[in-house]
Hints:
The structure is a homodimer. By secondary structure, chain A is an alpha/beta fold. The first copy, chain A, folds into two domains: about 5-105, CATH 3.30.1330.30; about 110-265, Alpha/beta knot. Chain A is about 35% helix and about 20% strand. In chain A, the strands form two sheets. Chain A has a six-stranded parallel β-sheet. In chain A, strand 7, helix 7 and strand 8 (about 175) form a beta-alpha-beta unit. The termini of chain A are far apart. Chains A and B meet through helix 6 and helix 10 of A and helix 6 and helix 10 of B. Chains A, B: Keywords: Methyltransferase, Transferase. Chains A, B: This is RNA methyltransferase.
Amino acid sequence: MAREITAFSNPLVKRMRNLRDKRHRREEGLFLAEGLRILTEAREAGKLPQYLFFAKDSASHPLTRALVAETEAAGGEAIETNADILSKLSGKDNPGAVVGVYPEFTVDLSDLNRDSAGIWLVAERLRDPGNLGTILRTADAVGAGGLILVDDCVDPFSVEAVRASMGALFTVPVARARWEEFRDWLRSGPGQLVGLSLDTDHHYRAPDYPAPTFLLTGNEAQGMPEHMAAECDVLVKMPMLGKADSLNAAVATAVMAYQVLDRQQR
Amino acid sequence: MAREITAFSNPLVKRMRNLRDKRHRREEGLFLAEGLRILTEAREAGKLPQYLFFAKDSASHPLTRALVAETEAAGGEAIETNADILSKLSGKDNPGAVVGVYPEFTVDLSDLNRDSAGIWLVAERLRDPGNLGTILRTADAVGAGGLILVDDCVDPFSVEAVRASMGALFTVPVARARWEEFRDWLRSGPGQLVGLSLDTDHHYRAPDYPAPTFLLTGNEAQGMPEHMAAECDVLVKMPMLGKADSLNAAVATAVMAYQVLDRQQR
């Protein structure tokens, strides 16, 4: 039976609201996700929240009912609440019908099976949570084996990243590693590392991109450092016909990922 | 000679800060852009600000000096200020060295020369300013003739859209039209309309995409309405191998745009 919380001053609401802050996420090992669509993706991927906040007026929605039932069956707590509290939790003026609080999960490099997928995405020092979430969403779409976050990337469990991922955070394995760890792991098995560069004439549609291909995306402002570019087995460039010399990081990653997918599907 | 403003209460600062709000942009016909990189893109595209705010400590930077000199020569006003006021204007904690205030500019459909480019981007009811700016950035990169915003799209002159465009707002023509106007204009000359759809088996790499191709991107949450899909000459789908059935709108637009570019460059 779901308990009801309608007071802003409720200690659990205060604690969960703090999860929008990275420091509190680290301390609690929990993060927030919102919206029926994303929480349903999570449920279908076998991920259930520790706390499920749902709006009273959405309680009869079949997807809400399924979330409540399965959350409680798995030992989590379902909490009936109102739009104001959902708004406070999610930070959105128009919150979805549900907010879930989940334990954080990442995988170790050693847990990744590189033979399980033809494409792997790798991002180094990514700064923008929207880009990170969007890259996860693309990873899901191209069937990537996972996303490997190298060095100091923005937190994949931030509200903005979770939102932009549209649920892919729950379905795509995410690993975090220092560059040296990643490089050593990469070189311990088959696979080529592919990077975008301005300093090459190698057109991105030319290579074959055999599986597994690891696509490295550099920092939004600076691109990848020289020593990472030097480690790449293949450097390619995309046509840039306008005034600018770069694309948005999530866009460049997606165009490359679909090129690799097309090559591997031929 | 640049005047100096260091008081938050200065009426011009207050007025310009209000430009972060859409209603004020409409009333004034002005918008904000920030950062040396974006303002320099604008300058190189022949667009100079009506007001240029620059940090005292960046006054000696060659790009700042060029902006100040050309702004004043063109009849605009250069205003020396501090980081606090730049932060107030841009809404960013770490503002760039410059903020420019520009007159809004869009073009009419009738001013677009469809023979001037092989690719044109069209977006309908786009909601996210970051997506709009990112699509402009992609439009620049693929050499698109322009971006046509159909029906009620988010404002391309919002601070977020300008920022995400990385200057492309100043180099890529932007037109706004109702769907019926756009359709009539489109059918008054050569060109095919291409849309993404879930209801087709036509792989996006199959068609030839002759110039000019108009790529239609639908609303982020709902995709394009049935009557727009029915108007498309070509409907294609992209492989979606994961749990989700759609990509981020800016990502999907970019993957399609690069596919069209590749076909047209063969």
